[in-house]
Specification:
heterodimer; A: 441 residues; mainly beta; Neuraminidase; 2 domains; 4-stranded antiparallel beta sheet; 4 helices; 7% helix; globular; B: 144 residues; mainly alpha; 65% helix; 0% strand
């Protein structure tokens, strides 16, 4: 009951005359390298607007931009979070959810209720499903790997298949064409997890030469409210030596980095990052950024360079001074969780030199933001221009979610795969009939 | 006629049930001010967490105290409500409610400056009432 009436509650709180109730977010875009950043606000009840989880009706699909078509390649999944294409075109679907969060404060209990309402708390399959849908082969949907520990990232190098569980990178033997892994696997390296494990998704990518793995470890809180000790080794991207499992922090100050990907022309590592909550509907924009070796990106002390967060004490002026402002703001609270570069894709020419970003969608701002897949055009290996909506329609007219996009990948034909963790579906977005030829520019 | 076979022993009057419960709630809310000071001095988040649980506990107990007082009034177990004392305690509880929301923020600003200021005012009210006990009714002539 609390959720739909959050504005009423906020109004009641305002009546107590302790906070200005300016909780309506701006429709103005916050895109690019220098987004408009309003002053941070403090709330009695932070703005909350949760789209309740529904489901797709029979035959219903998300909407795609002109020149594209969409179909489901797998349905009836259990909270699919990420997708990965193997060499023979088989697609791995990671079905997962985080470990149960402990209740440290009364607020954690409330947040659990909110998450359940939005479908985020739905039980994950805790498994990896393999789907085969290539032309000329009989379709197949089978359990590929059962009961890994809250998996998220997958990377294949040669005959080694790496799965980033929430607490470790596992290595499994895999040969092209296999449809099931029964080997127990071995731990390549352990990852920060622990009893709180607030941001649990460990995104994974192999370097283009296959010698290193890069893995994200999100922060253990919104803004250090679980104590700095809980943040040890978190809000960081690690570089892991594939042969020995030795790891080092490659970049830090990244609150919740996901969608780790290499841009192949420049060889540069990129990620999408979920920024902090509860200081306003237009703060802090989530972002897409190249990730520099040794770079510090601000969390928790500052955001977008040197904008200090008043909630963090003691501050670290030495770190703030060298905090890198990220490359490209995606908008506040859009919750980007998936990233894939479109080169080389088989989508129309207009989508062939840039990045697709899967935006899971906001719960703490009004109007709602995210809940779509966007395309950000690149030029010379850098973002160049505003995001373009590619896959939408995840929200129904009455603002229920039929689905929520998460992880992205290209399939063997160069079409776009979209994991949908509320619709429990994986969608395939491809060029419409004749669209490739008809596409402008 | 009065019974004069027994000496007139003045039995100390039992406290009203609501007063016992108010004392518990007041203790919890006052303790939140102490843990707020500890957080302010140490910046150790454990104290901040202690404060929000103390406030939450204090508010639940305050609610129970209000129900108990209502029951005692309805059952005519107490005399008239002492409105100045009742209103003072009610204001303290309302401030603590607002403070629970302030303390539900994340990080430093959950306590400093608004949270600890509200804890201080709440505690000041509680102590000024508590020096004369926790009964919120006028005690004279309330017991048979």
């Amino acid at each position: 009951m609390i959720i739909p009436h959050s504005r009423l509650l906020c109004a009641a709180a305002c009546a107590l005359a302790l906070s200005a109730c300016n909780d309506e977010g701006s429709d103005k875009s916050q895109y690019g390298s220098s987004p408009d950043l309003p002053a941070p606000q403090e709330y009695l009840i932070p703005p909350m607007r949760v789209a309740p989880a529904g489901s797709w009706r029979e035959g219903e699909t998300p909407k795609v931009a002109a020149g594209l078509q969409v179909r489901a390649i797998a349905t009836g999944l259990m909270h699919p979070r990420s997708v990965y294409t193997l060499l023979n075109g088989d697609v791995l679907i990671v079905e997962s959810n985080g470990p149960k969060a402990p209740i440290n404060r009364p607020k954690d209990y409330i947040m659990g209720v909110v998450k359940g309402y939005a479908g985020t708390g739905a039980p994950g399959g805790n498994r990896i499903t393999l789907v085969r849908y290539t032309e000329g082969q009989p379709p197949l949907q089978t359990i590929f790997l059962d009961k890994p520990n809250s998996p998220f990232g997958v990377a294949l190098v040669g005959n080694d298949l790496y799965v980033a569980n929430t607490d470790a990178i596992m290595r499994y033997p895999y040969k092209t064409g296999e449809t099931q892994i029964t080997a127990p696997g071995e731990v390549l390296t352990e990852l920060p997890a622990g009893p709180i494990n607030h941001h649990w998704t460990k995104s994974l990518v192999a370097s283009p030469d296959g010698t290193k793995l890069y893995v994200g470890a999100g922060s253990n809180s919104n803004i250090t409210e679980n104590g700095m000790a809980a943040e040890a080794g978190r809000a960081a991207i690690y570089e892991v030596d594939r042969a020995t499992g030795a790891k080092r922090i490659f970049a830090s100050g990244l609150r919740n980095p996901n969608g780790l990907q290499f841009e192949l022309h420049t060889g540069q590592l990129w990620a999408v990052v979920n920024e902090r909550d509860e200081i306003g509907p237009d703060l802090v924009p989530d972002y897409l950024t190249s990730v520099r070796d040794g770079g510090f990106y601000g969390w928790p002390y500052s955001y977008f360079g040197q904008h200090l967060d008043p909630r963090v004490q003691p501050q670290r002026p030495d770190l703030v001074a060298r905090a890198i402002s990220p490359d490209y703001a995606l908008g506040s609270h859009v919750a980007p969780l998936g990233l894939v570069f479109s080169n080389p894709s088989s989508l129309p020419v207009a989508y062939r030199n840039g990045a697709f970003v899967g935006e899971h969608g906001s719960w703490d701002r009004s109007p709602l933001s995210g809940y779509k897949v966007v395309y950000i055009p690149f030029k010379d290996g850098r973002p160049d221009g505003n995001p373009v909506d590619v896959v939408t329609g995840f929200l129904s007219a009455d603002e229920k979610t039929q689905g929520r996009p998460v992880g992205l990948a290209l399939d063997a034909t160069g079409a776009l795969l979209v994991a949908d963790d509320v619709g429990n579906t994986v969608w395939l977005v491809s060029a419409g009939a004749g669209a490739t030829q008809a596409a402008p520019n | 006629m009065t019974d004069n076979t027994r000496p007139d022993i003045r039995r100390p009057s039992r406290p009203h049930a609501h007063a016992l419960i108010v004392s518990v709630g007041a203790t919890l809310l006052g303790a939140a001010f102490v843990t707020d000071i500890a957080y302010w001095l140490t910046l150790n988040g454990q104290w901040e967490t202690s404060s929000i649980w103390l406030l939450t506990g204090g508010l639940i107990v305050a609610f129970l105290a209000a129900l108990t007082l209502l029951a005692e009034v309805l059952l005519r177990r107490v005399g008239k409500i002492s409105w100045p004392r009742f209103i003072a305690i009610a204001v303290a509880a309302l401030l603590a409610l607002v403070n629970a929301f302030v303390h539900s923020r994340d990080g430093y600003t959950a306590v400093v400056p608004t949270g600890i200021a509200l804890s201080f005012i709440t505690t000041l009210i509680i102590i000024s009432i508590g020096v004369r006990g926790w009964d919120l009714t006028s005690l004279s002539g309330t017991r048979p």
